[in-house]
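Please, structure for the following, as tokens.
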Amino acid sequence: MADHYFDAEAFTEHLYKAQKYAYSYEEGGYKVSYIYQNYVDFYKIPTNYPHLHESFEICLVIDGSGVFTSGDVCYPLRQGALFVAEPGRVHEITSNVTHDLYLFFFRMVIERTNHPENSELIHYFLHQKNEIVYNCEDLLHYLPLLNRVFQEDLTATDKLIECFIYEVLQRLGSKVFIQESERAEDDSLIQCAEVYVAKHIGEPVTVFELAKACHISERHLRRVIRYRFNQKVKSWILDKN
């Protein structure tokens, strides 16, 4: 059993109760407000359709797979993926192929205060973050804990929320974590592409078909193959085929 094994079914059905919860705290010249948390599954309706919010929406994949589209960029989703939709940015989450995606999400507002200090953590999140990072399965263990503590001790929940937000912002804004996450995701993408091509030996596999099978955009597929193998995707497919 994996170290970060998480029983999504038990969590969503037995542990978690959706909450609207307003909590704010100040951190180095910023006011951070945690305003809502919930979960959503994509079993019956495989998309939440293009939409936007006035606040940050941060999502953590509990289980399953899908695609996060932000603007014209598509990112594959799997358990442990952590991603953010900017305020006012049109985005969509889908699970059209597997219909098995579980998400935890919360909404957050960050406002500047008159305090002269400047939080480096929040600054990096606001100005240098990546939209998605992977391998954040350990964060899943916060979720049932947040729910349990909320029922018993409001103050403890506040501190837990601050710790959870710190972990989230650190990962989305950390250059080192992003680089390691991107490398692992590229490895996973290449493995997926190799499996698909192997299953279609002797068949004409197009770049569009391969990108779709890997739940990514053609542009992203071309970037990864060019970076790893210094080849165009069509040439890489022919070599494998």
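The chain has two domains: 8-173, 180-240. The helical segments are 8-15, 120-128, 142-152, 154-173, 175-199, 207-213, 218-229, 233-240.
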